[in-house]
UniProtKB/TrEMBL annotation, chains A, B:
InterPro entries: FUR, Fur_C, WH-like_DNA-bd_sf, WH_DNA-bd_sf
GO biological process terms held by the UniProt record: negative regulation of DNA-templated transcription; regulation of secondary metabolite biosynthetic process
Keyword Zinc among record annotations: yes
Signal peptide: none
Top-rank lineage group of the source organism: Bacteria
Cofactor notes: Binds 1 zinc ion per subunit. Binds 1 Mn(2+) or Fe(2+) ion per subunit.
Binding site for Fe cation: 95
UniProt binding sites for Zn(2+): 99, 102, 136, 139
Family: Belongs to the Fur family.
Listed CDD domains: Fur_like
The protein's name: Fur family transcriptional regulator
Length: 143, 143
DNA sequence: GTGTATGCAAACAGTTTGCACAGAC
DNA sequence: GTCTGTGCAAACTGTTTGCATACAC
């Protein structure tokens, strides 16, 4: 676990205490898994991983935990076009670069791809989700 | 119905004939509704509208029809973070402006929100999907 | 000890599927 | 007449909820 991850986990514990939420092993496990994973797991996938440590954990608990984490702003729901919701502990605004050949997904620093104005068509912009689809350097060589 | 919509509908009829698919009133109705609507209705919403014309239509038929339309490339599935899938008959590349309060979705001409370079991090860019989340003018007033 | 979080099972919503019949060809 | 498309209901999947118990405080 990196220093940054440890820091985030401690911040989570702090916020829970402030809000009167209990620090349960399940909550810590869910957040730790999300911090460690570089992909964007579904609730089911998180559940499977928590189960390795706490075999009696319930799927409902994982759902409730990610909801709590999202409300506290520690994780973000990822807009995906699959059927189930996915979560990401990287709460910095960032874009995604997807290789259509090999499926690799790279996180992009926000504004590396493009910049969105603060207001568009009278809408007050809160966030954005940008997926750029293309061919990565190594797949370009394969052609 | 605009000339463009009529043209698209005729194209659909033509492609169906080529593929040996039957031209049923339900199919025409679903595509016509999607062509006319400027938002991105859920299957349920399309179903409600078809029912006004064909009261005995089944929800399953609407699901099957949008699947067919998508396979033929006449409509696109819209990535959304609500619980149900939405469809769009505008198959040109374009961005989306989503109101997080009321769920309204506006189409944005591609590059109205932002411009993506032809190459990012060595990736050859093919297409992109941009969703801008914010609060629409009328919801801003409601606060 | 108190009260929130958990585990379980049942409920729910959106979507898909199997099957007999209807209707486009 | 043939064979695909439809309508109905039942099945399925992802998610939420109610309730009794467990456990963090």
């Amino acid at each position: 676990m990196t220093a940054h991850q440890k820091e985030r986990l401690e911040e989570f514990v702090k916020v829970c205490k402030e809000k009167g939420l209990k620090i349960t092993p399940q909550r810590l496990a869910v957040y730790e898994i999300l911090l460690r994973r570089k992909d964007h797991p579904t609730v089911e996938e998180i559940y499977e991983e928590v189960k390795e440590i706490y075999p009696f954990v319930s799927l409902a608990t994982v759902y409730r935990t990610v909801e709590t984490l999202e409300e506290l702003g520690f994780i973000k729901r990822v807009a995906y076009w699959g059927s189930s919701v996915r979560y990401d502990a990287n709460i910095q605004e960032h874009d995604h670069l997807v290789c259509v050949m090999c499926g690799a997904i790279l996180d992009l620093k926000a504004d590396a791809g493009c910049r969105v104005p603060e207001e568009v068509n009278g809408f007050k912009v809160l966030s954005r989700s940008l997926y750029i689809y293309g061919v990565c350097p190594s797949c370009q060589k394969k052609d």
